[in-house]
Design a protein that fits this description.
Two copies of one chain form a homodimer.
Chain A: H1 8-15, H2 19-27, H3 34-47, H4 53-60, E1 65-70, H5 76-91, E2 95-100, E3 120-125, H6 130-144, E4 149-153, E5 163-165, H7 168-181, E6 187-190, H8 202-212, E7 222-223, H9 229-241, E8 251-254, H10 257-269, E9 279-281, E10 298-300, H11 303-316, E11 321-323, E12 327-329
Helix pairs in contact in A: 1-2, 1-3, 5-11, 7-8, 9-10
The structure holds a DNA duplex.
Chain lengths: 340, 340
DNA sequence: CTGAAAGCGCTTACAG
DNA sequence: CTGAAAGCGCTTACAG
């Protein structure tokens, strides 16, 4: 019985019934007499028989497999989203296959997303370059013929798919406002690789927040970098070295916790005391945030909830667009500014 | 053309050839005249046709899907393993589906591992209770009829599957030896939920290391906890409060970086200065290790490499057992002990 | 309650 | 170089 596994025919033959009957007891559907049911179940157990999900998918058109596309699992942020989605999917009898971003533009036919007949696909979108946007939209349109698609993350408002998206402009506005409330006036924003025409993006909210507080928008306090600690460190380092110390920001809003961690290192290297000399606000509330020094103030973006909601939305068939939940997590890295 | 997608029959009909021919150009195998090939390809492109991987799997017995079972993706350690495996799998045209541990004992037939006819399965094993061991071995034996299995992680030496395992006893011996070299004599080990009869386990190496240095094995310096920061914090806290300060350990070897982070917090709460009063050695070299204060000395367990190697071993068909690579990463959290 | 038969969308010998 | 036919392991009307 090495690497084989029996088929429904083996079971039927040994139980002395038709494969139709075996199929019925397998799925618990259709009427089967208690006696034959018991008989068939015994044979199934004896053979340790498991029906082939792929044969079942072939005939029933349901694969009970969902696809998910994430930027990179190495950022725990995405691992949380995936975990939330996976747990919810299992609850409804589904499995989630994870695809990397690259599979959206992959040439290998054996792996193409479209080849897999999944019951649905969740795509986690982050800000893209204009060309990236075009390409994504194009690909989604193709995939749409094969499966239902749901979008999550920071999804531009002009995408027309069922969506759960973070209200980033609002989050940024409130972030600025929070720091202003702590006495900060020189507030930097570090992060964001590309611009986008969506009016929900971070930049917009950052600027709005400054305007609402009647504070000047200073180009020197705006740095672009991708979402890694190294990039964050380099970005803040460059900002500091380009400015006389008197003009250094007293607070920085980081794209995410990784960038915030990098900023912490850059600030320390410059001899700044945290949080007295510089407040740092992260985003995503990674597991390590409480263990940094100072413990990082961040934003809980409820990633597991987002993942679970995405699965529910995908399975529900609804077309709506919703906001994802979020909340400040106050710790030590943002402090009242009392002069330097 | 909404949510449908064409089949090989549609393509064949429109191109005026048999499905056999379409199949041949699809797979690039078998001889097809340049002319008909071009004709068929045009139709395929026009329809944006993608053959169903599930129908292909049905007939060819190859699904180009690998399964992977990991304890929990929320620990970046496992996310790294998965990423390494996934990248390698894609290189050879495979996809990896991730299953949680719970699926090893799942009752839902629709999701059962055995239902999915995967080309192979990688199971990442951590130390288990004796009963957990029994159950796992049992389950693996069942699954084995359906697919090839490879084990990775901390795999007891009496498991007989192709394996890549960390030489934990050796790692622990060298860890103790490293700390002894820094002048430490009171070295604690915090971690490990269960005992196991495998002689490669951490405890064994820890004890050996102490013996080699002619240092006493002190039960009070041995704490059990699971691999989370909270557990690590609680464990060290309890150890410290159970001992007169004069007997406090001067160094602790943590199960992993999460536990190490928890230990840092516990030590700080007790007023210990790090690393002067207490050296802490982590394991797994998580991305945040360099950003802790003091930067955490840890062990790079080359997780992505492990993941990639696991895929290669799975696909190779070889039966060997190998050691996984590892290496110390020296940072600031382990320092020479100069008295307290 | 039970079974014979068609069909899901492909691949693969086997003929020609 | 090309195609008719069988078969992969199931599910699902349709009869009985």
């Amino acid at each position: 019985m090495s690497t084989s596994g029996s088929t429904i025919y083996d079971i039927a033959a040994e139980a002395g019934v038709s494969i139709t009957t075996v199929s019925r007891v397998l799925r618990g559907s259709g009427a089967v007499s208690a006696a034959t049911k018991k008989k068939v179940e015994a044979v199934i157990a004896r053979h340790n028989y498991h029906p082939s999900a792929i044969a079942q998918g072939m005939t029933s058109k349901k694969t009970y497999t969902l696809g998910m596309i994430l930027p990179k699992l190495l950022n725990p942020n995405y691992a949380m989203i995936f975990t939330g989605a996976n747990d919810e999917a299992r609850r409804s009898g589904h499995l989630i296959s994870l695809f990397p971003w690259s599979s959206l533009s992959d040439e290998r036919p054996a792996l193409s997303l479209a080849n897999r007949r999944m019951d649905g696909l969740i795509v986690c979108v982050e800000y893209l370059s204009p060309e990236g946007n075009e390409r994504l939209l194009e690909t989604l349109k193709e995939l749409r013929q094969y499966m239902r698609i749901v979008l999550i993350g920071c999804v531009p408002s002009y995408y027309s798919y069922p969506t759960i998206s973070y209200p980033m402009a609002e989050i940024m506005r409130k972030s600025v406002s929070y720091l202003v409330g702590l006495g900060h006036e020189k507030i930097a924003f570090i992060g964001g690789t590309e611009e986008d025409r969506d009016e929900q993006r971070r930049d917009v909210g950052y600027t709005q927040g400054l305007q609402e507080a009647h504070l000047p928008c200073t180009a020197s306090y705006r740095a672009f970098c991708k979402g890694t600690a190294e990039a964050g460190e380099a970005a803040l380092e460059e900002m500091l070295s380009s400015l006389l110390p008197a003009y250094w920001p007293t607070a920085v809003i980081a794209l995410n916790d990784l960038v915030a961690m990098g900023c912490m290192n850059a600030a320390r290297k410059r001899g700044l005391k945290l949080p007295e000399d510089l407040s740092i606000l992260g985003c995503d509330n990674l597991f390590c945030a409480p263990y940094l020094s100072p413990a990082l103030t961040s934003i809980d973006t409820r990633q597991q909830e987002l993942g679970a909601d995405a699965v529910r939305l995908l399975l529900s068939g609804e077309e709506k667009r919703m906001d994802a939940g979020w909340e400040f997590v106050y710790r030590e890295s943002c402090a009242r500014y009392a002069g330097r």
